[in-house]
Structure formats: structure tokens, C-alpha cells
Amino acid sequence: xxxxxxxxxxxxxxxxxxxxxxxxxxxxxxxxxxxxxxxxxxxxxxxxxxxxxxxxxxxxxxxxxxxxxxxxxxxxxxxxxxxxxxxxxxxxxxxxxxxxxxxxxxxxxxxxxxxxxxxxxxxxxxxxxxxxxxxxxxxxxxxxxxxxxxxxxxxxxxxxxxxxxxxxxxxxxxxxxxxxxxxxxxxxxxxxxxxxxxxxxxxxxxxxxxxxxxxxxxxxxxxxxxxxxxxxx
Length: 233
Fold this sequence. Notes:
Blueprint: H1 3-15, H2 19-52, H3 58-68, H4 73-84, H5 99-135, H6 144-150, H7 152-167, H8 171-177, H9 187-197, H10 200-232
Helix pairs in contact: 1-10, 2-5, 2-7, 3-5, 4-5, 4-8, 5-6, 5-7, 5-8, 7-10, 9-10
């Protein structure tokens, strides 16, 4: 099949809403959204606490979290695999090679990004508005909800960055998910597999969806930053 025919077939898959195609896209979005939501529930309060707390070793912890932002996906996948394997501490849960394992791997990748960006945003806001918050009796952890709300646009950009990193990931989900057809096969793992098999229409169709998703994420992040700058001004 030549390239033009492959692209024509890919567009037909996308526009024709092929069931297998939709199942792969739906699983990918479900896994990634779940991972980002769970990471946000943990990372937002943790990042805010790290911004306000003062304790021995805080600087080292910040350096560690910032370093984990660049954690290689295959390493994250390996860590989750060791936890969930039969000989691992969580092996009895039977989660390996399931969508839940893929969520855990993606959450491990996204969490440091959310914690680091939240810590930076909240720390800047606290430095700027510290006296105001103290004057109305909001000190320490009591100021966290207000600080998170004030930094909501910057934090939304961080969440979108985490979503983008997770949605484009292939190594970790391949290790812990097994790329099982109809069960744990995501867009990125499908592209890798179908390209190696020579099924270019499906690989190209999924690639087009990923490109559209990437553009949408970047547009949303840009919009959030512009709205935030307008409110700040």
C-alpha cells in the first residue's frame, strides 16, 4: 500500500468511527484521564504543602521531585512492574497487565510534574501575597485553598502538561499493560505494533488522533496562560 492510499484509509477509519479504532482511543483517554486526576488529587495538596512547609531536607526533596520530572517512562514501568508482579509486594492484587496497572504507571510519570509545578506556583504566590493572607488570618496550611484558587490558571497548564506527557507515553504502559488486544492496547502501543506489522492505515489514523490531541492540549495550555495573565493584569 502506497502512502497516499494509507492516508486515505486512515481518514476513513477516523471519520467512519471504526469500532476497533474507537475502542483503542477510548481506552487511551480513559487511562490517561484517570491517571491525571489521581495525580492531581495527590500532587496539588502535596505541592502546596511543600511550598509552605519548612523542614530539614526540604531542598533535597525539591531537587529530587524536580529530577523525577524527567523520569524515563521505561523506568517508571519497571518500578510498577516490580510492585505488581507475582513476587512483588502487591502481586496478590492481580493488577499486572490490566488498565489499572497502566494508570499506576502513568500516574507515576505525571505526579512529579504536578507536585513541582504546584510547589513553584504556590511559593511564588505566597511570597507575593504573604502579608495580605496573614492580615486576614490565613497562615500556614489554611492559606492553601486560596493559593490554589489564585494559581488555578497556572496549575491548569501544569495539569495539561502532565496529560500530554502521559498520553504520548509508550514504554511504561507496554511493560505493565502487555499490549493485549481489546484490553490494554492504547494508541501509542498500537502505533508501534501496527507499524511493525505493516498496517499503516490504523497506525496513521491513531497518529492523526494523537497529533490532534497534542494540538488541543497546547491550545488549551496557551489559552489558560493567556487568561491567567489577563486576570493577573
